């Protein structure tokens, strides 16, 4: 059995052909431009995305030379596009990077109480969610809002264009701030309080079910002789957890890429009982929920460092073929644990912290004359680990204990980074052997949809292979406990500074 599996990321589109034994017969990644047509905008062009997908799908079918049994998807959360009654897009696909909804947050949350919204939806009061995007369109672009027949996310848009079916998959809906977790339905009360039209939200569907078949003309276009079933799959973080086999209590799931996350599986939706709204709770499949935290800043820090401070490493990489990030982290290994007292708050893209996340920025604290580039790079890696520990502690305070972490992603190729995370979190970190955990996870969901397996959890856990385990180094634990306490103290004290900084105007040129 062969699946055409697709993962839509914020910056890349990945298409693959995978069999039931996790063999990749085809795998290709292309970059997706993020369009910034106006201040704070960050969109994908829906027609460009569809065109690139169809081109890659045709190439995948042609190159793999196998009979495709179904299409299945994984994709990013928080995307939103409005389509008119004829199915034509009225907007770009607003991504989680689109900050325009920030301007209406105060107004929106004056009409609904953030703690109550969090209690019902599992989503903290942040601008990234579809609720804020829809309300922003309602208030700032009323003509577009009026003409919109349906709001869909990125996978929903592709599925509509491929099948003609307008649906919203439940795991993505759980990350929209629009889904009532208890009822697993759109929250009518919340929508009514904000004056939003529930009829613009599509039918909710499970990610491990067939939602339709390819239109015959689409099947022919990508080189298939007949139509095949289309399965929505689930959001990318959930797909990663499935691909890693991290669906048991105590097994944390992480993906170290541009951004990162730490989630743990439970069979009931749980929110932060302390009242701080420190983590999100999203649905996956089969009654499994994934409370935890997705964090904006991880691999993006190394990319920022590469682009601005690693010109020599880039030249060496081009001449030798050595990965530029390996060269950068090699330098970081020369600095001691704790980076000589240097602490980095890694919020260069802001962060998903309700109190001040929209205003947050990066901070390098404790810089002295004896610090070197090695200390700085190591502090970047350690800052990500400290941020993950914030999530781990918040989960533990709600009786969700992470006893090990399964991890994949480009950043997971760094032994140094994984050892740092193990030392900071004080739990074993398992690097999972997977060419692409999200695509493999999507394939598993496709197998469930076609009746090839009985349940996702059992099959996923049986197929996960640990490539290497990183055990906490006792020599570093006390150092990191002290550094982490300083990290937390900085966050406690810096809120008014962030708010003042955000109120000022600065030239970026």
TrEMBL record:
Keywords: Kinase, Transferase. Pfam families: FGGY_C, FGGY_N. Gene3D superfamilies: 3.30.420.40. The keyword tRNA-binding does not apply. GO terms for molecular function: kinase activity; phosphotransferase activity, alcohol group as acceptor. GO terms for biological process: carbohydrate metabolic process. Residues 2-243 form the Carbohydrate kinase FGGY N-terminal domain. Residues 258-449 form the Carbohydrate kinase FGGY C-terminal domain. Belongs to the FGGY kinase family. This is Gluconokinase. It comes from Infirmifilum lucidum. The lineage of its organism: Archaea, Thermoproteota, Thermoprotei, Thermofilales, Thermofilaceae.
């Amino acid at each position: 059995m062969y699946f055409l599996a697709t993962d839509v990321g914020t910056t890349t589109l990945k298409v693959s052909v995978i069999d039931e034994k996790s063999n990749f017969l085809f795998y290709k990644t292309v970059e997706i431009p993020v369009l910034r047509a106006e201040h704070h905008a960050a969109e994908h062009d829906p027609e460009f995305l569809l065109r690139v997908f169809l081109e890659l799908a045709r190439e995948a079918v042609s190159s793999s030379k196998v009979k495709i049994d179904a299409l299945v998807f994984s994709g990013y959360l928080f995307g939103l596009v409005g389509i008119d009654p004829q199915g034509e897009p009225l907007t770009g696909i607003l991504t989680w990077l689109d900050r325009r909804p920030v301007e209406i947050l105060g107004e929106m949350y004056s009409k609904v109480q953030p703690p109550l919204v969090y209690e019902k939806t599992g989503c903290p009061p942040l601008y990234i969610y579809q609720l804020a995007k829809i309300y922003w369109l309602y208030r700032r672009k009323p003509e577009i809002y009026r003409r919109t027949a349906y709001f869909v996310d990125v996978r929903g848009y592709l599925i509509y264009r491929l099948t003609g079916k307008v649906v919203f998959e439940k795991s993505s809906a759980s990350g929209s701030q629009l889904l009532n977790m208890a009822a697993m339905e759109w929250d009518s009360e919340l929508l009514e309080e904000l004056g939003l039209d529930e009829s613009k939200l599509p039918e909710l569907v499970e990610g491990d079910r067939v939602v339709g078949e390819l239109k015959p003309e689409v099947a022919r276009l990508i080189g298939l002789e007949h139509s095949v079933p289309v399965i929505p799959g689930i959001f990318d973080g959930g797909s990663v957890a499935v691909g890693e086999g991290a669906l048991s209590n105590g097994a944390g799931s992480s993906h170290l890429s541009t951004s990162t996350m730490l989630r743990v599986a439970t069979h009931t939706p749980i929110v932060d009982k302390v009242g701080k709204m420190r983590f999100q709770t999203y649905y996956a499949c089969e009654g499994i929920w994934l409370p935890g935290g997705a964090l904006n800043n991880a691999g993006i820090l190394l990319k920022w460092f590469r682009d601005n401070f690693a010109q020599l490493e880039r030249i060496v990489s081009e001449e030798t073929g050595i990965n530029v990030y390996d060269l950068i982290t090699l330098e970081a290994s020369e600095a001691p644990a704790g980076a000589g007292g240097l602490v980095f708050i890694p919020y260069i893209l802001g962060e998903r912290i309700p109190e001040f996340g929209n205003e947050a920025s990066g901070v390098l604290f404790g810089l002295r004359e004896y610090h070197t580039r090695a200390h700085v790079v190591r502090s970047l890696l350690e800052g990500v680990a400290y941020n993950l520990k914030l999530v781990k502690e918040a989960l533990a305070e709600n009786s969700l204990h992470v006893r090990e972490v399964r991890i994949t992603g480009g950043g997971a190729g760094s032994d140094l980074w994984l050892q740092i995370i193990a030392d900071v979190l004080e739990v074993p970190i398992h690097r999972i052997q997977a060419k692409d955990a999200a695509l493999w996870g999507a394939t598993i969901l496709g197998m469930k949809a076609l009746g090839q397996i009985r349940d996702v959890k059992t099959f996923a856990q049986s197929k996960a292979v640990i490539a290497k385990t990183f055990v906490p180094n006792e020599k570093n634990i006390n150092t990191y406990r002290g550094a982490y306490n300083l990290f937390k103290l900085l966050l406690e004290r810096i809120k008014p500074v962030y708010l003042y900084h955000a109120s000022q105007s600065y030239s970026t040129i």
